[in-house]
Every structure is written in structure tokens, then in C-alpha cells.
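Let us work through a complete example step by step.
Step 1: write down the sequence.
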Amino acid sequence: MISAKSKKKVLFVAGEVAPIAKVGGLADVIGALPKALKKLEVDVKIVIPKYGIIDEKKYPLKKIASEIKIPFYNQEELVNIYSTFLPETQNQVEVYLVENLKYLSQGNVYFIADASSSGEINECQRFVFFTKCVVEIFLNNKINWQPNIFHCHDWHVGFLPLLIKMQTKGNQKTLFTIHNFAYQGKYNPQEIFKMLNLKEIDWQTLKERTKNQFEDLNAVQQAILNADLINTVSPTYAQEILTKEFGEGLENDLKKRKNNLSGIINGIDTTFFNPMTDSNLKKNYGLEMTNKELLKNKEENKNYLQKICNLKINSKIPLIGIISRLAEQKGFDLIITSFEKLMKLNLQIVLLSAGDLKIEKKLTELNLKYPNKFSCNFKFDAKLANQIYAGSDMFLMPSHFEPCGLGQLIAMRYGTVPIVRKTGGLTDTVKNIKCQISNVKYQGIGFVFEKYEAKEMLNSIKKGLKAYKDKKEWKKIIFHNMKQDFSWETSAKKYLKLYQKLLKIQD
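Step 2: predict the structure and record it as C-alpha cells.
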């Protein structure tokens, strides 16, 4: 009998990890959760492709295996394996990187700007090949470390639970985490079969198709049908994706696995996102200070943000921050629809975003029309992002759907009050503040609207502006926000329980 301690060997398999190769929030999770699991004595490691954009001067890599043969398209491709460690983990959380110039190691993480699965052949080849590499390397003990739990993240590695189940007799278990159900990895099945030397008759779930996808072989669908356990990144989103509205065509498949589905809220890296030590800020501040000093330093960050964004420097004007991908999911249609009414209010807005060029064009036009009240910044800029978290009074997230959301958690860490729609992880992390103009009494830590309507969003913003006028109560809200614990420690304990459940299945 293998001891319980030695059994906790978990491999995180993902397309991104921060800060080594980051595009979106997925990378933040992969770069933070393993650190918390390590403290719980889980032997956890990470594997990603060795992309061409990885800065090897910043993240020194050591080659640990050469010319491993990987069957693909009825040929043998050669890969090399490199190793490094997550920064600031004292050589504790090891990251494996798989190198292959033909499929994995040219250019950026994605072939298109958006991180969604586009169905293009080069993307399909990259991530299916990576998945095949993981199977060959870690099931065949090519590097002298073999996990018994494969923690698979999102559509990139959706075929991994299937391949592991086909090639093992239950000794390795799989947990599949859905970070964003809208991204699924839908590819031509015949192309996949050629890559993996499979036929549709080889496995029952290969015959599965959703009604609206017909000929597509859906990576996420295959993961749902084959993983031992499934989870997503908030309890509310776990319930929402069982419905037609949020199920993205896979709600019936999820209902079959309902007893194996759970939701665990994401955390944030509280070491990195710490206003007391954040080197990106004009002035540091935190609960260790006196209330007066904390508020004074936060105000200095606000004035600095106004300055660098070419807005009027005035600490009395409420400042709303927005940090988001430019995507329909994020509620930009509500913002654009209500923008003229927003500009009639006493406020300023700072936006940091990148993505959909059509949305960018509309926002640019509004920026040109209202340059003194609206600042647009279309780029990825971690330093400016933290300045916005610290310098804003409120943080807007009017999402149509939001599996978890990290922005609202970071904002509260920096004493910035969230304005959010009641959906997914926003429901689980932001409770509504009950506002009365003369006497602001709060039960929660933000302003929440329920219906996905521009009018509802606008009303919540107005409530926030009214509450902001009552400085005494507003200070209480700030301190209340900053005392919340959104670290990974609590979530890591819940993941540990899932791993223990998997090991019991194994026994």
C-alpha cells in the first residue's frame, strides 16, 4: 500500500502560468494555487509548453531530458524537457516546459490575439500535441516523477482525461477545472483522430456531439465526460453552467456528471497584490498604518493616477477604474449604451483593456469626445493595473457572466469598492451595500445589480456616487474591504479535499 503522503503527487497541466508565460487570468491561477498547495504538503508541479516568447534570461531553464519520442500523425516527434521554478518559491514549485520547434516553441502562447479557442489548425495541433506529450512523458516515467493526479485546466488540455483513461487502469486520476466555459476547443474530429492515431469506435465518448456543433470534436465536452472529477472557479458558476443560459451547449453533459461537479472560488496572490509593499504604487498603504495615514496615501495614489492619465487632479471627484479584456462577456455594451448619461455625472473613468477591436474603436471615439473625464489605455500593463486598483475609488465589473473574476478581489484588497453584476463568482464574493442617502448602512462590500441592463448598472453607479459623499461611512467600507481574506489558503484546502476524494476513488 502506497502511503497517503506519497500519493499527493499533483501535476498542473495548463497553457499558461504567471509570470513565465501569461496572457489572461488562467495564468494567475496556475502561478498562485500551487504555492498554497505546497504549504499543505502536496507534491505539486506544473507543465506548460516552452513558448518562444519565454524570457530565459529572466527565468533560467535547465534541460532535464532530451529527444523524447512522441507519436503524432503516425510519426515520431522529438521533444526536450526543461525545468525552472516559480519565482519567489525558494525552489519549491517546479515548472516543466516542453520544447518542440514544430508545434510548441515558436512565438507567443496563442496564434491570435484573443485567448479563446478559434478552431484553427495550428492552434489545434499545438495543444493536442502538448496533451500527447504530457501523456507520453508522465505516464511513461520519462523524468523520474510520476503524478497520480493530473489537474487539467481549461480547453487547452481537454483531451487529456480521455487519453489517460484510455491508457491506464485507474491508477492515475484526473480533475478538470473549467475557468471559462465559453472557450471550449472545438476542432475537426478527423484531424484529431489522425493526430492521435484514433478512430471514433475506439472510445464511447468520441461519438458524442452536441446538437449545435455537429461535426466538431469538443475538447471541453470530452473532459467533462471523462474526467474523474470536475470543478469550476466559483460555487455560483458551478450551478449556472447547468442551465441553458450559461451551459454553452454542454449543460446536458454536465447534468450527467452533476454529482462530480463542484465550485471553488479563486483566490489572489496576496504577496504580489499588497498595497503595503507594492512597488508599482506612488505611496504604499495598508491596515498596519493609522486610518488617517492609510487614507492620505491612497489619496496620493489617486492624484498620481489622475496625473498620468491626463485627468483633472482633484481627490474629491469620484474615480472609477475598469481593468478587463475587451470582450462582450465583460459588459462593455452596457458601458457604451449608458456612456452619455455617465458623462453627465460628477466622475472620472480610467480604463485599461485590450481585445476586441470593434469595442476598442467605439471606446476610442468616446475618449476623444470626453478626454477630461475618460482615459482609455489599450494595452497589457501590470504596473498601470496596480496603480488603477490603488488610485480608484470604485471598480466596475458589469459582466454578462463571470466564472470567478479576480479584479473585484484585488480591488477590495486595495480598498477600492466594487460595482458588479450579480453573476458567477461576483455573486459569491461581493455582497450588496444597502444605501440610504442620509445614513449609509452596509451589509456587504460593494454595489450589486441583478439584471443585465444599462439602466440597472447606471443605478448602481449612482448609488456608489451617493455613498461616496458620506466620507465617514465610505471609510468604513474601505476598511471593511481591506480586511477581507481572499488569499489562496482557503481555496487550496478545498482543492486538497478534492485530491483526497480522488485518492479514495483510486483505493
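Step 3: interpret the result. Residues 158 and 223 are 5 Å apart (CA to CA).
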